[in-house]
Automatic annotation (TrEMBL):
<dbReference type="InterPro" id="IPR008310">
    <property type="entry name" value="UPF0735_ACT_dom-cont"/>
</dbReference>
<dbReference type="InterPro" id="IPR045865">
    <property type="entry name" value="ACT-like_dom_sf"/>
</dbReference>
<dbReference type="Pfam" id="PF01842">
    <property type="entry name" value="ACT"/>
</dbReference>
<dbReference type="InterPro" id="IPR002912">
    <property type="entry name" value="ACT_dom"/>
</dbReference>
<comment type="similarity">
    <text>Belongs to the UPF0735 family.</text>
</comment>
<protein>
    <recommendedName>
        <fullName>UPF0735 ACT domain-containing protein SAMN02745196_02273</fullName>
    </recommendedName>
</protein>
<feature type="domain" description="ACT">
    <location>
        <begin position="72"/>
        <end position="147"/>
    </location>
</feature>
Length: 148
């Protein structure tokens, strides 16, 4: 995938050099709020601050590559009134523009649904949005299945 003057690749984490992979782990600790400072995070992960700062702007989890794009979420929902409505309201609350909604007929109390969302105006990253959606009662599973 190409963006302006940079070229991006999707690669498996198991072939990343250790310093780059550990930089990603530091970023995840900081993003989740588990650790408040870079100093604490690099100490826990076992890399130097200079390694972190060298690689931090060049490594991102896949979900961050979806910024400014369209994503499709696949959902498993309990067959309860208001679950899908709560999902749509939460997406809108964080600035997502809902483009399509598809929901199948519930089987054994579980409904499959998919929602395509334009993420240009999102006020949170995709991981945080998915975490917020997972907190909604009646949501069993959410996966990001597609990005455009």
């Amino acid at each position: 995938m190409q963006s302006k003057d940079k070229t991006f690749y999707i690669i498996s984490e198991d072939i990343l050099p250790e310093p780059i992979y550990k930089t990603l782990l530091v970023k995840e600790l900081l993003l989740k709020g588990e650790i408040k400072t870079v100093n604490e995070a690099v100490k826990i992960i076992g890399i130097s601050r200079s390694v972190y700062y060298k690689y931090k702007d060049g490594i991102f989890p896949f979900y961050e590559a979806t910024d400014k794009r369209i994503v499709t979420l696949s959902l498993l929902l309990d067959n309860q009134s208001g679950v899908l409505s709560s999902i749509l309201n939460t997406i809108a609350k964080y600035g997502g523009n809902i483009l399509t909604i598809n929901q199948g007929i519930p089987l054994q109390g579980i409904a499959n649904a998919s929602v395509s969302v334009e993420t240009i105006e999102l006020s949170v990253d995709m991981l945080e949005l998915i975490n917020k959606l997972n907190e909604i009662p009646g949501v069993r599973k959410i996966e990001m299945v597609c990005k455009e």
